[in-house]
Fold Telomerase Cajal body protein 1.
Amino acid sequence: MKTPEAPPLAPDCLPSDQVPAPARLSPQASSMDKNTDPELMPPPSNGGDPPLRSPDPVSGSAVSQELEEGDPASLSIPLETEFGTSSKLSPRIEEQELSENMSLPAEETKRPELGSGETMECVSEEPAPEDEEYLTWNYSFSQRPPFLSGSWSEFSTQPENFLKGCKWAPDGSCILTNSADNILRIYNLPSELYNEEEQLEYAEMAPVLRMVEGDTIYDYCWYSLMSSAQPDTSYVASSSRENPIHIWDAFTGELRASFRAYNHLDELTAAHSLCFSPDGSQLFCGFSRTVRVFSTARPGRDCEVRATFAKKQGQSGIISCIAFSPAQPLYACGSYSRSLGLYAWDDGSPLALLGGHQGGITHLCFHPDGNRFFSGARKDPELLCWDLRQPGHPLWSLSREVTTNQRIYFDLDPTGQFLVSGSTSGAVSVWDISEPEREGKPEPVLSFLPQNECTNGPAP
């Protein structure tokens, strides 16, 4: 669900004369690729295609090892452009060669007509100004949200399989999930949500796409300018253990491109965190003591290497999460060494180094105003709020239950009024953070238990 207060770099908030130029992934053949007979895989071009079609189901591999720190990333050799191809999805995915340009354009898009909460009691409609062509939807957490639908049969086919998070598409049209079977799944919203009549029962949701990774998935994210109305912007990035960064087509499930990073021994190393820049022109990837920046116009191994730790100073450890400010040219990095770093977007120069968490940082989120951001860590019960105008110490902290190393995501609604977080006990807490800053901290306006197991991915 989009609102007029969305970040200024969102695709539907940019005037047409300010939209960045399209970024295209150019084919560069690799001498290291095993597949020497690549197939043409042109991206969909018709904007009127139905949203997200389902290919044949693909079975995933068994649960893999948990993420561990390591992987030195001191890179001193020049990089060359390289990427690969695979004709099928296998337990250890071979790299995919591109024989045709892949387009990730940053074009102006239309807002979705309906959002996920339009038939929910916890969402209320406010009339939009006459000069606007879309509706503004605001959340109301005065009562527990009603259950609408879910997906459970999909994850019970393999033993010890469980969900590890979910993320809304930037246009609010579908949901991307990650699970222990190393499969990324995309779900469309139930069609009943688009009916004006009140629906009492909803069918169980089934994935429309499955994208199989070769090993434990470290991180995944949507292309920042994704819109279902434009298939050539519908892409997903993922990183898994001992594999390159993969770009998946969110309309077909095909592997479209790869970005490779190598350590000082010229060995392939996996990224632990991913984040597209707000304009979609760059992909920022976190490694041990390093952030590598790839251009989305050029898949392969060419990248800019930005060290976060040098001469025993800076941010050490694995860069576990990255987030961009929606209002200022900077980004924040979280590390498993329990530190937070602020860096300039253009050249990666360090701006500030913050500390305050008891565990390794697992998730970051900026407020739409661009001044505040929030951080959470593993085995750490605190959610910390930081203000860029006085970053020396947190403004306040919120309490949640996090007793494991699992990523427990949290998120803000599009207006920045409510902060929602899950917990290892399954409880979901909602805080109203719109009140003027005062002594103390916000108290939850709603807490409820949607399930009796870990809730790791609430996303309004």
